[in-house]
Amino acid sequence: MIELIDVTKEYSKGIAALNGVNLYVDQGEFVFIVGDSGSGKSTLIRLILKELEPTDGTIIVNGQTLNTMKHRRIPLYRRGIGVVFQDFRLLKDRNIYENIAFAQRVVEKPARVIKKKVPAALSMVGLAQKYKSFPKELSGGEQQRVAIARAIVNEPAILLADEPTGNLDPKNSWEIMKLLEEANERGTTVLVVTHNQEIVNEMRKRVVTMKKGVIVNDKRGGYR
Question: Could you tell me the sign of the dihedral formed by the alpha carbons of 7, 23, 184, 199, in that order?
Fold first, then answer.
């Protein structure tokens, strides 16, 4: 599903954010990416999203080689990826129904599909009754659940979550992780960048540990 082969990313000559990284993520896996700030975790996510280009190496996602992908194909490629950020990134001038519907309109879903899929996504994250609410009327945990609903409404093959619990209290953090695990159980490949050692240790998933741009550990279990 995701393959990085000898991937290096330099932001300036001789200074590598990633240095010869090799990573293989199979379809349906749930993987935590952990490490200190500056270890290359977010760079890795941005390369998979094709927001960045590698300096060297090859990236293959869902059978597509990103290095040779034409610029015009990038939006189509990204339709197969759901993304959840630490800061939610909701549209503040639209209610939560419209926030999720927007993700469907981007991929040109017909109105009848939107009317079915958006309520289903909101129900999945426990916010069916708040579909008319605006982001500012919701708690941080609720806003992150809306962000997850938006990320999963198009049934993506891959879900990338960059510090999804970074702004949340422990209770909400566990609720968010449960939603990500449920998406994984429905077949979505999930990558989660996190600093939350307690969650990583408790969930016992595959853990890829990064340090100074390289992978130093790749095992199932806890935070190392």
Answer: negative
Q: Residue 12: exposed, middle, or buried by beta-carbon count in 10 A (0-12, 13-18, 19+)?
A: exposed
The CA distance from 224 to 218, in Å, is 10
Whole-number Å distance between alpha carbons of 100 and 82: 12
CA distance 215 to 20: 9
Full-model pTM = 0.91
Same domain, 145 and 208: no
Whether residue 85 lies inside any domain: the answer is no
Q: State both tokens at 152.
A: 């999963």
The stretch 214-223 carries a mean pLDDT of: 88
- Report the 10 Å Cβ neighbour count for 74: 13
Measured CA to CA, the distance from residue 24 to residue 4 in angstroms comes to 7
Single-letter amino acid code for the residue at 89: R
Domain that holds residue 18: 1-41+56-80+156-222
Of 154, 169, 194, the residue at which a domain comes to its end is 154
- The total of structural domains in the chain comes to 2
pLDDT one-digit tens code per residue, 16-53: 899 999 999 999 999 999 999 889 999 999 999 999 99
- Nearest Cα residue to 164 out of 196, 136, 139, 134: 196
Please write the tens of the pLDDT for every residue from 186-213.
Answer: 999 999 999 888 999 999 999 999 999 9
For residues 64 and 172, state if they share a domain. yes
